[in-house]
Model the fold of this input.
Amino acid sequence: MAESVVKFVLEKLGDVVVKEVLHLYGVGEQVEKVSRELSRIQAFIKDADRRRIVDERQKQWVKEVRDLAYRIEDVIDTFLVEMPEPKPGKREAVKRWFMKTKNFRVFQRVGDDINQIMARIQEINESRITYGITNIGEGIEEEIRQPVRRIVLPDNDEAGIVGFEADTDKITSLLLDETTTRRSVVSIVGPGGLGKTTLARKVYNSEDVKKQFDVRMWVVISQTFDPIDILRKIAKQLEIQQPQDLSEHELAELYRSLATKRYFLVLDDIWKNDLWTQIEGILPNSNNMSRVLITTRFFDVAKEADPLSTPYKLQFLTEELSLELFLKKALINRNSNEECPHDLLDIGKKFVKRCDGLPLALIVLGGLLSKKQANYATWSRMMQTMNWGVDGEECLAIIGTSYEDLPLALKSCFMYFAAFPEDHDIPAQSLIRMWIAEGFIPQIQNRTLEDTAYSFLEDLAQRSMIQVSHRDFDGSITFCRIHDLLHSLAIQKAKDDNFLMVCSNSEDLRNCGQMQRLAIHGSSWDSKGKESEELYYNIASASPNLRSLFSWERIPKIAELMHLRLCCFAGVFGQLEFLEIFNLEQLEELKIEEGAMPALKKLAVIFCPKLRVPSGLQYLTVLQNLVWHSRISEGMENQIRSICKHVPSIDISRSGF
Done:
């Protein structure tokens, strides 16, 4: 991962405009020297990134290089913000003004910073020799995958799952049992990766179930759940207005709405047995055959929900079904009528045995092998060299190996999934725009960045590192998500690499340190706690060098995050009526999810020269006044006016102030 960071910084230092500004203000030669030294280090980083480093000293060296690259970028960004590019024809005047004013201190500070960086580079070069990191990667270009050829294009990944027919029939029969008129709870119990959610979705989407119930609702339960948040999600699916806090009157309305219907509610992935006791009072028992289906890893959670019902224990796949699923993933280019070669079949059975009938392990391992040559020598080498972990942890070892097999650019793309909440359906178009904005997608000759980004997404899907929720009519991915075990891996890898940190509570936020990206997850924040409020509104002091911020809760203070390039907010501005974005010179993209700011009446964008037209402006349905005072093109102005035809007052000043 360090190489991708270094590569990104070197590209920035090589930018023509950046170089011109740096030379104008007298720091160009110093920065070029830093760039040359960083280029030399890059070759060694390729070696380190391509090997599975076990030595803790080598890991520390890679971390130091990555942090140094971030430090260089911070210094350059800060300088460019404080010393913006002068207009043509005024360069000499600006330079004289600069040398005579207090801004000369900026030059002195940058000079001191660069001297410190050069000293740090010298230390890193000396420690490289000590740690035994060689230069074998020099001259090797990062492999860029070609677009994945889509052979089989089901609407979603669940269409390719095997072995759930009998389970689906059994769960469906329990839900439709006419002898049980009370509101009963049916539970699916089993370990992570066994397919509980997949089975629940098959049942949820079956025609028999659709016909039986007046309304169906699906709610994902995180480990740090909030009962009010769960009830709010239920209310949304019933098309009841969603207040930020549910009063007694609003809870009564929710209860009455459910009491008049035969409802079917899925609570997916429950971890704690006290959840049911906190929400069951709002789920009426009208003796009309309403049903609740829960998935959980824990037998006691299932019994707590309904002591009168026997939990359904999902079984591991048989050896025969395991082999079928594995080969379907591993030999993706094979014709369905074509028999598997005997030598591959024999070693394939050995792979299958390692997976112990766990579907997630089978599809991830199959996805890994689908990227390799389908011959005995390659598969045999994989069998011998893979880290299989200890007994009971084979699945974690398999998904860990699949991550290590990713090309460098794809590792960044995979870790980015940590920014999204668990089991979140992610729009593919929005995701690839974020990847591009972050600089993850390399420019390839004769291909657009969007095409390359889509090929990366397809690659992750073929490897079963992500799940396809839906494809368009032409087979392209429109929505995707990630399994909770792989999501946990993404979170851990992102944290280890100082790539992104997920904060689910105030303690996490205290420890975010110099993290480059921050995602606010979970519902465990005390909405009335003074300490949590102070932490939320002072992210700038906790992580001043933040590059990207994702908030799935309340809006934090972002005014001091001068390096911020990308903001993504969803469902966090419920009561906000006025939003001003002021003087964020590095901000390039602002994404507004539908329903994120339902009460917003005024939006002001002041001096954000790099900001493109925000995605989702059309969702600001009650917006009365839009102020945009920042340098934009005529085309951008026309686009804004076209999107915001519903806004009565629009004030755009293309020159800035």
The chain has a mean pLDDT of 79. The radius of gyration is 27 Å.
